[in-house]
Amino acid sequence: MTAATHPPILPVYRVGLAAWALLVVLQLVWHAWLVPSQTLPAWLVLAITVIPLLLPLLALRNVRRALLWVGILSLFYFCHGVAEAWSAPGERVLAWAEIVLTVGLIAVLGAGVKRRSTPH
């Protein structure tokens, strides 16, 4: 019996996977190292910020579906980035990094959509 072969991952999805990984790293660096919370325990902040980004790993057999999950979740992170960029000058660079990564994820999802050909 031969091992099941998976179709190659499209380059646009590779970019999405990289953005997803960078978004996870950004949350870890931001909330655990650079700007730890003064009011909440670090484990709670990391649970709120990182665990949701790990849930799409459950759908990783289908990269497109996993990226769709991340794209939906990234809307929350986009809003968080905008709020932090607006209200926390000391965290503005981190917030803009979050905004760029989330917009990149959404762009990857749009670029990966195949259009159906319509008869003229």
Secondary-structure-based class equals mainly alpha
Strand content: under 5%
The backbone outline, from C-alpha atoms, is: elongated
As a whole number of angstroms, the C-alpha radius of gyration is 17 Å
Q: Total strand count, please?
A: 0
Mean pLDDT: 92
Q: In sequence order, what are the helices and strands, one letter per element?
A: HHHH
Helix count, DSSP H or I runs of 4 or more residues = 4
Main pleated-sheet profile:
none
Whole-number tally of structural domains: 1
Quote the distance from N terminus to C terminus.
46 Å
Low-confidence stretches: none
Secondary structure: helix percent? 55-70%
Give a written overview of the molecule.
The chain is an all-alpha fold. It has one domain (27-111). It is built from 4 helices and no strands. It has helices spanning 11-34, 42-54, 63-87, 92-111. Helix 1 (11-34) packs antiparallel against helix 2, helix 1 (11-34) packs antiparallel against helix 4 and helix 3 (63-87) packs antiparallel against helix 4. The longest helix is centred in the middle third of the chain and has 25 residues, at 63-87. The chain is elongated, with a radius of gyration of 17 Å. The N and C termini lie far apart (46 Å). The model has no long low-confidence stretch (mean pLDDT 92).
